[in-house]
Design a protein that fits this description.
Helix content: 55-70%
Order of helices and strands: HHHHHHHHEHEEHEE
Strand content: 5-15%
Distance between the termini: 66 Å
Shape: rod-shaped
Structural class: alpha+beta
Radius of gyration: 43 Å
Strand order of the largest sheet: 1-2-3-5-4
Number of domains: 2
Amino acid sequence: MALALPRPHRDDVRIAVGGLLGGLLMWALGLEPRTAGDSLVLWQPRWATLLPLAAVACCELLRRTRPRVALLIGTAAVIADTVTRGSVVTVVMYTDLMYAAVLYGSPSAARRIPWVTGLLTVVGGIVPAALWRDPQGLLIGVGVGVVAFAPAATGWVVRDHRDAAEGARLRAEQTALLAEMDRRQAVTSERARFARELHDMVANHLSAIAIHSTAALSLDDPRTSRDALGVIRENSVEGLAEMRRLIGILRDSTGDLEPSATPTLDGLAGLVEGARANGLDVTLDATQDKVPAPVELAAYRIVQESLTNALKHAARGRVHIALRQENGALHIRVTSPYRSGDTPRAPGSGSGLTGMRERAALLGGSFEAGPEGGRWAVRAALPLTEGDSA
């Protein structure tokens, strides 16, 4: 099966046609560098000049797609042109083939051709001058340099600039891609952080509202309904305040995305009192010293979410909260009564445990939650030294 040649570039077609027509015009006008009586003309017929011209013109069609083949055939055609009356257009088109072979050829060919043509230029000037003992022999080297080395060197310079520009473009694209990936990662991380904040701040209040509204609807007791409505109103107001604070953070254009009043461990007593008001029997045992702000916020949110889960899922009984500081970490333990198969008293999203685990992971800590001796236990260890992930 015949090997199909690639389709030539339209600019190469223009160069080939233009060169061929120019050579034919000069041949028709008799503009030839050598005459029939010249001793170098071994092929005397005038039409013989057209064969190398046609061969080089055909090679121009391959200058971009098959530069090595075009250069080899073009070199043979130029050598053949030297034994005819000659054509300037043939030589000019050959210089373009030399330039294209360096510019479009393989990297190894692009490195090798300038060295070879440079060596031929030096040898072509020194050897004839030494053999003939005539300085005019140097003109042969000059001719080789103009026809071969100069276009090869030009092609190397252009290729080097082109490769540098392509490398800069690729680096710019990679930088833009990395910047976009960083931006998306930052947006995703920020959305996850606000999702945790929204869940932890509001879920506790909404769970209390759901539980007490259920009690008010199920019990036909005016006093119980009134107490339930009081708790519902209190949690509604607190939840609304938390929502407004979070909305204010989102609308803040100064770039400060931290809550204006970040919860601290000093607020655990108030958190416990709120849980007791919602009907939980809670005890607090905290013996920690001053801890870093990120650890303090994470610990507060873990205790808050644990109390929310206890309000929704725990059986009747005491909820115990213990915080202690040892071995360079703040250890949190929240236990509540647990009976397998109990129906939750309020619906949940199932993201509470995920949020607590994420908070511990961001600080390089650990988190565990599950049944333990007939009770549900939440255990977290938060390092007091902020690592890279914090």
